[in-house]
Amino acid sequence: MNIPERNSLRERLIEEQKRLSGTAMTTLFELDPDRACAMQIQAAGLDLDFSKNRIDRSAMAALVGLARAHQLEAHRDALFRGEPINTTEQRQVLHPLLRGAIPGQESLRAQVETTLTRIEQFVHGVHSGLISGITDKPFRTVINIGIGGSHLGPAMTCRALKPYAQRDLDVQFVSNVDASDISQKLRNADPETTLFIVASKTFTTQETLANAHTARNWLIEQTGRPDAVERHFAAISTATDRIAQFGIRPTHIFPMWDWVGGRYSIWSSIGLPLALAIGYELFTDFHRGAAEMDRHFQKAPLEQNMPVILALLSYWYLRFWGAETQALLPYDHYLGDFPAYVQQLDMESNGKSTSLQGERLHQATSPIIWGTEGTNGQHSFHQLLHQGNLMVPVDFILPLRSHNPIGAHQDLLVANCLGQSRALMVGKSLEEAITELGEARMDDTAAKSLAPHKTMPGNRPSNTILMDKLTPSTLGALIALYEHKVFVQSVLHKINAFDQWGVELGKQICTALLPYISNEQPCSAFDESTNRLLNQYRSVRNS
Ligand SMILES: O=P(O)(O)OC[C@H]1O[C@](O)(CO)[C@@H](O)[C@@H]1O
Fold this sequence. Notes:
The protein has 543 residues and is of the alpha/beta class. It has helices spanning 3-21, 25-31, 35-38, 57-69, 72-80, 106-128, 152-160, 179-187, 206-223, 228-232, 240-246, 272-278, 280-299, 306-320, 338-350, 382-387, 409-426, 430-439, 444-454, 472-493, 504-517, 528-541; strands at 40-43, 46-49, 141-145, 170-174, 194-199, 233-237, 253-255, 325-330, 368-370, 394-401, 462-469. It has 3 domains: 3-70 and 300-426 and 461-499, Rossmann fold, CATH 3.40.50.10490; 99-285, Rossmann fold (3-Layer(aba) Sandwich), CATH 3.40.50; 503-542, Phosphoglucose isomerase, C-terminal domain. 6-O-phosphono-beta-D-fructofuranose is lined by residues 147-150, 200-202, 205, 208, 262-263, 348, 500, 503.
């Protein structure tokens, strides 16, 4: 631990921030004509432009120095050596092993290989109709039942890779315990041709079990055959014994391991819906893209390391500029669920307040991640990005080739994306607004009074991540990029990115509340507010 060095780099970064807060980004481009060239990185089919940031070479060097003072390389190497870096749960963190990026670990690797082979056989079986329902009709619908990491990864990737999907297999998702979610899916499902996948690392998650039992009851009721469960259900979990009790046949049970965190589990059996959607061969391409990003993260110098640079910038804005939120704006309809996916990845990993050493931390350790697909956001919250007094750093993600090259749509999409990042950077001055209004023939007084409303401060930072096309491989690389970015941030904040104790208290209180809901007597066990709200529900429920 090099605490004095870290403290002096922090002080230097405070000074760098002060200096840069008075410098326009456009000036930074003038001062450093090479900037656009210098501030770009290519890796694993992705191209990052980070030149539109409130940073210059000197501040970036200090940030990289800070990463070194935090022994980032040693932490990264410990991850790739498979050390038990999830210290609060005494677990290894081996999701890169699932894509072949961790050497050794022979026995775990053998288990992974066996499981992947079983996934491959299952996928081919379903596609060929050899694995079918009780009336021997091939499956046409797959409904994945899971939540959190057992939902967001499969759902996001299936949407992202829709252009590669098998036409005759519709993969759907149920996650919410709200019955409106599952009932809508069941309403349109054909019991003879529907396969349910129950995905739960623990197989104890309340929402998933409630939905799984509802689906099971529906299937038995519709077919009149309790034995239908055996053929119409598959499951994924670390708790294979609990799955067996549910009535699922062993060939339909896929293991996962406690060394894969839920939000890092798309590479494991949790990816089965994706493998069914796009086929096993493309599923391996998806792994290959991620493995390429793993190699880049391991080998590239920190200054040219894509996940490291993204993490340093995110840290820079959170810690030194007070930017508590960061937006993720994919300019691709198929990537519409990517912000929600990264929300869990970043916020469940790094939303912490205790350091690895057990000290109480007082500063924010994860930005709030939000966003939606471009161009929809432009007609909604981009107003705040451009004129609000909050600075929101943005990551734009832009595949250059469309899967649907129709007319001028892609030209428009690309122009919109690049137009937004430039507008955020250059803004519009009062003089420019007045001139513009004058040119639009507005009289001088009216122009002067309207112009302040039309100015934009500019200097709003953004990264742009390009890729040739959204493919299984580039999607894999993109996900691995953000996984490693989150890991680097956790090293800088000195926290464990791989536990999530914060979600437990709400679950415990929910369990404690449940018996009072069906009680005869009004509830007085909790605080006055909770008692009153719960009793309101009791009176509606029992009326
Ligand atoms: O896969 P499981 O065990 O059902 O858990 C689902 C999700 O619940 C969480 O544990 C949070 O409650 C996530 O970390 C996880 O992805």
